[in-house]
Amino acid sequence: VPATRVELTVSCRQLLNRDTFSKSDPVCVLYTQRPGSHQWREFGRTEVINNSLNPDFLHKFVLDYCFEERQNLRFDLYDVDSKSPDLSKHDFLGQAFCTLGEIVGSAGSRLEKPLTGVLGKKCGTIILLAEELGNCRDVATLQFSANKLDKKDFFGKSDPFMVFYRSNEDGTFTICHKTEVVRNTLNPVWAAFAIPVRALCNGDHDRAIKVEVYDWDRDGSHDFIGEFTTSYRELARGQSHFNVYEVVNPRKKMKKKKYLNSGTVTLQSFAVEAEHTFLDYIRGGTQLNFTVAIDFTASNGNPSQPTSLHYLSPFQLNAYSLALRAVGDIIQDYDSDKMFPALGFGAKVPPDGHVSHEFPLNGDASNPACCGIAGVLEAYQCSLRRVQLYGPTNFAPVVNHVARSAATVLDGSQYFVLLIITDGVISDMAQTKEAIVNAAKLPMSIIIVGVGQAEFDAMVELDGDDIRISSRGKVAERDIVQFVPFRDYMSGGPGAGLSMAGLAREVLAEIPDQLLSYMKARGIKPPPVPPMSPEIPQP
User: Fold this and answer.
1) 3-state DSSP call for residue 143?
2) The domain 4-133 belongs to what CATH superfamily?
3) Do domains 4-133 and 138-274 have the same CATH topology?
4) Beta strands in 123-243, from DSSP E residues, in sequence order
C-alpha cells in the first residue's frame, strides 16, 4: 500500500539579519534520515526569498508519511550570498529538528519551533504546516434498476446481474465492480453499492465506463443480455433522463433489422462523499491516549539474575524497556499532554503483599500517569525494586481498565491504545476474550509484544487476524489486537536500532485502519480544521 503523501509548507518569522545594507535572503534546506540510519541526507531546498526576515516559502516538500515510522526531519536556514549551490559559502541562520509525526500530530497539523544553532543569538521561529495530498479519496454510492430485460431462461425469467469495467489508457477494460444477482425477474432493482471514484474512472471523469448485463447460470456459463457505456461525469448528473440506458446486444443488432434493445437500465440514485483518512482525524484534533501494561509474573525470572527478562543491566536496556521505547517514541507525537498511564500485573504489591493485576507503576492509584516515555521507564524500574514477581498472568483487568476510560469518550475526540508487554503464558483466556469483544465496540486498540522464548499460541489467537475473536457466541465487531513476538526483532549489535524501528513498524501498522474502522462504524466525521495563517509579527 503506498504511504500517504504529505505536503509541507515552510514559513519563518524574525530570522537573523546577516546582511549589512539589506535584510537576509533566506533559503530552507530539508534533510531526512533513512529508517534505522543516523545519517542526514539532503531532501530538497525551497526557493530563495530576497530581502525578507519573515519568508513564506512557495516551494513545498512532498514526503511519504508512515504513521508507524519515526521520520526525523532537519530544517537548516541559510542567507544566500551568491549563486553557489555549496551551502558552506552562505551564512547559516539556524536550524530546527522535529519528526513528521510531530508536525502532523500538532493542532491543525501546524508546528512552530524556535530556530537554534547560532551561539548567543535568537534565530527566530520556523512554522511548518502539513497537508495530506488528496489522491481522489471520493467514494460514490450508486443504485441501478432495469426494465424489460430479455428473457434468457427456458423455465422462469432471467436472473440478472451487472459487471462494471473502467477503460484504460490503451483502450482495454478492467473489471471494477459486480452487482449481486436478482433472481427470476426481468425488472430487477439492485442494491446500492459504494465504490471509490478512483476505481471507477482513475480520476478521469470523462473516461468510458462499460457495463455488461448478464443472466446468471448455476454452471457459470452466464448468458450475455447486453451492454451500455457511460462515464463518471454522466453518472454524476444523478437520476434523470440522461441516466436511462438502452441495453444493447451487438450481435442481435447486426442480425435483426427491427431490434431496438434488450431492455433498459436506470440509475436510481447517485451520491459521492470523501473517504476520510487517519490524518483527517488527527488534524481535526483526535488525540491518541497511550497506556502501558507490564507483566510482573514470576515466569519472567528473578530480576536480580542476568537470565531474567526483567534484569536491569547498567549497560543495556532489557526487552521490556526496548519494546516500550520503540512503540512509545512514535506514539507520543500524537498525545498532546505526553502523560502515559503505566500499569503492572501479576505481582505481590506493598504494603500487604496482595496479588494485583492492575497496579500503578508510579505507586499512585488515583493517577497512574507518568510524564513521557522516560517517566514510564523510570516508574517501571522503581516498581521492580518494590514488588515481588508472582502470578497468575491475567490480561482482562488491564484491558477493562483502559476500556473504562475509553467508554467515557465515544465522540471520536480520543482514541486509546493499550500496549501489553508480556512473556506470554496467559491464565485468564476466557475473561480476556470477553474483555476484548467488549472493547471492540470502544475507541481502543490493543498491542501485545511477547518477550522471551515461550510459545505464543494464545497471543496469536487473540490477534484475530485469521479468525476473528469471539466470546460466549459474540464475535468482536472489529479486529483491535495486534501481536508481535519481540524475538523476531532481536538482532543486538549495531543493527539493534534498525530492528527496533522494524518492531515499531510491525506493531503500529494496524492502528490507523483500526481507528478508521471505529469512526466509520460510529458514523463519526472528522471536524473541519480551522484555516490558519502564520501571523507576521510587526517589527
Assistant:
1) strand
2) C2 domain (2.60.40.150)
3) yes
4) 125-132, 138-147, 160-167, 173-178, 193-196, 208-215, 223-231
